[in-house]
Amino acid sequence: MEKFLIRGGAPLEGEIAAGGAKNSALPALAACLLTAEPVTLRRIPRVRDVRTMERLLEHAGAAVEHGEAGVVRVRAEALGTPEAPYDLVKTMRASSLVLGPLLARAGRARVSLPGGCAIGARPINLHIQGLEQLGARIEQTHGYIEATAPDGLRGGPVHFDRITVTGTEDLLMAAVLARGETVLDNAAREPEVSDLAALLIRMGARIQGAGTSTIRIQGVERLAGADHTIIADRIEAGTFLIAGAITGGDLIVGGCQPEHLAALAAGLRQAGCDIREAAPDSLHVRRLGRLRAIDVTTAEYPGFATDLQAQYMALMTQAEGISFVTETIFENRFMHAPELMRMGANIRIEGRQAIVAGPTALSGAQVIASDLRASASLVLAALVARGETIVDRVYHIDRGYERIEEKLSRVGAQIRRVD
Ligand code: EPZ
């Protein structure tokens, strides 16, 4: 199993760039199932979850080709087996994103229930309720969702009891081919939802309000192919901004849209960093002396992203004072805390709240990654820890970060991948 060997202490300096957003690439690839024509997607990151989604598309009958760096061409001329098998779904919860498109295009879908993951139960009941609102008949048997809509889906009102990102995306993709109008109420406002809507509109869908809590969709007969470049990965970019802050470096983070990182930038400024736009798509981060402990509470976009919570907690171990890190989205997203404590961090968990006392001198240790963003948190802590850290099970980090060790090495980090 591959590991990272990291020696801490080097401030990161220079330029580093985020790639295309993993959480845009996944729904965009699923959307290719909605048309028989070829779709070209650009800036697709070569990460494990993208490969899993590509295998799901091929299993359903689509052809997937890779062009020059970051270009993927998908053609779903006919969907022979509209299903997502357990052996693929169990490795990636976001597989539920094929449910809406398969149902909309083929009139039926058989998708394995995802099961839980490290950060929580991750149910998809809201996806199912929404699809039933559009006329789908859905049963759950033997760990699979069997969905049918023999005479197609019909538009209607869908209300989400709580905001769900992939739930909104699944319903968006189902509604674009439904008969009549669909209104998604309490929809997710994440930039990745807006990016998916932009692709669907390029394919001929009629959508208003993406990026707001109410999205209106007028169903159309069929969708055409398209050529679409997905947005930059705000979570990868945010991870690099925190890397610059935690190492006391001076870093320009390219490939990021500053408005997507407003909540993190506000937190970093309050904590004592200088963050400024270096160009329309890049931010410059420098630490201005000692870090201050600043509380954060995760929330749906445009609030502080839950996907940056673990990375921010690593930073707060180096800040002066007590900080409260509150996680409101997932019920078990503090798996990184015990590993950070093994490196010397002073953290107490009380329900949804982590109380971090700093600054503490971290020392390198053998640590184990448990999920994608917890892994990133351990890498950040290792960059500032005294001595060597071994981060095991780095396949978790490869799910959402493309060659992170190469990118970090180029700005001064002492990190290498070993078997
Ligand atoms: C998306 O997951 C992201 N994944 C996650 O990123 C991200 O953490 C999450 O949104 C929140 O921003 C992708 O976009 C592929 P949710 P998703 O549905 O859609 C509950 C990463 O690290 N819920 O918005 O699965 C759910 O349990 C990943 O890149 C239901 O109860 O998250 C959670 O508590 C991790 N029923 C809350 O809602 C449902 O049917 C928000 O989940 C759906 C969700």
Could you list some keywords that capture this structure?
419 residues, UDP-n-acetylglucosamine1-carboxyvinyl-transferase, Chain, 24 strands, 26% strand, binds ligand EPZ
Chart the SSEs and their pairings.
Layout: E1 3-7, E2 13-17, H1 22-31, E3 38-42, H2 48-60, E4 63-66, E5 72-75, E6 83-84, H3 86-89, H4 99-106, E7 108-112, H5 125-133, E8 137-141, E9 144-148, E10 157-159, H6 165-175, E11 181-185, H7 191-202, E12 206-208, E13 214-218, E14 226-229, H8 234-246, E15 250-254, H9 262-271, E16 273-279, E17 282-287, E18 296-297, H10 309-316, E19 321-326, H11 336-342, E20 346-350, E21 353-358, E22 366-368, H12 372-384, E23 388-392, H13 395-398, H14 404-409, E24 414-418
Parallel strand pairs: 2-15, 3-14, 6-7, 10-11, 18-19, 22-23
Antiparallel strand pairs: 1-23, 1-24, 3-5, 4-5, 7-9, 8-9, 11-13, 12-13, 15-17, 16-17, 19-21, 20-21
Ligand EPZ binds at residues 22-23, 26, 93-94, 120, 122-127, 162, 164-167, 192, 306-307, 329-330, 372-373, 400.
Give an overview in words.
This protein is an alpha/beta fold. Helix content is 31%, strand content 26%. The protein folds into two domains: 3-19 and 232-418, Enolpyruvate transferase domain (UDP-n-acetylglucosamine1-carboxyvinyl-transferase, Chain), CATH 3.65.10; 22-229, Alpha-beta prism (UDP-n-acetylglucosamine1-carboxyvinyl-transferase, Chain). The protein has a four-stranded mixed beta sheet. The longest helix has 13 residues, at 48-60. The chain is elongated and about 65 Å long. Residues 22-23, 26, 93-94, 120, 122-127, 162, 164-167, 192, 306-307, 329-330, 372-373, 400 line the site of ligand EPZ.
